[in-house]
């Protein structure tokens, strides 16, 4: 019952507003159009203030862009890496594979030269 009273009240207010707009349009057209333009301008200004102050996200700084790029690269790098899989893969390696040892190059020779003599650089 209470809800019907509220909806009836809203319909009455909207009807009176329409009657006022139509009568204003026919009796004082220039003033009516001026008021409409002023209302639209004020509404646009209020919307712009609300948008730029509250809704718009602040522009990301150059440092933030670099950080986001680094995070993205890091996620891409470590995306497929799981600790459980690494252990399983290391256990599956065949123990029979001989490890290649680095050989010393036979054509290189250490020259024992003037190791004990050092230049006194301060005297130069």
Describe this structure in words.
With 124 residues, the chain is mainly alpha-helical. It has a domain of 57 residues. It is built from four helices and no strands. Helix 1 packs across helix 2. The longest helix has 27 residues.
Radius of gyration: 42 Å
Shape: elongated
Structural class: mainly alpha
How helical, in percent, are the residues?
55-70%
pLDDT averaged residue by residue: 79
Order of helices and strands: HHHH
Region (Disordered): 71-124
Biased composition (Basic residues): 91-107
Keywords: Membrane, Transmembrane, Transmembrane helix
Transmembrane segments: 7-26, 32-54
Task: List its traits.
single chain, 4 helices, elongated, transmembrane helix
In terms of topology, how is this protein built?
Layout: H1 2-27, H2 29-55, H3 62-77, H4 83-92
Helix pairs in contact: 1-2
Summary, kept brief:
By secondary structure, this protein is an all-alpha fold. The chain has a domain at 1-57. It has helices at residues 2-27, 29-55, 62-77, 83-92.
């Amino acid at each position: 019952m209470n809800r019907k009273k509220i909806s009836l009240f809203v319909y009455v207010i909207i009807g009176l507003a329409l009657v006022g707009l139509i009568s204003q349009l026919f009796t004082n057209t220039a003033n009516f159009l001026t008021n409409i333009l002023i209302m639209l301008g004020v509404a646009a200004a209020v919307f712009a203030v609300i948008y730029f102050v509250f809704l718009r996200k602040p522009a990301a700084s150059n440092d933030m862009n670099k950080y986001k790029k680094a995070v993205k690269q890091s996620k891409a790098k470590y995306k497929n890496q799981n600790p459980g899989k690494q252990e399983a893969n290391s256990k599956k390696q065949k123990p029979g594979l001989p490890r290649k040892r680095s050989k010393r190059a036979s054509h290189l020779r250490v020259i024992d030269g003037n190791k004990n003599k050092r230049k006194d650089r301060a005297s130069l």
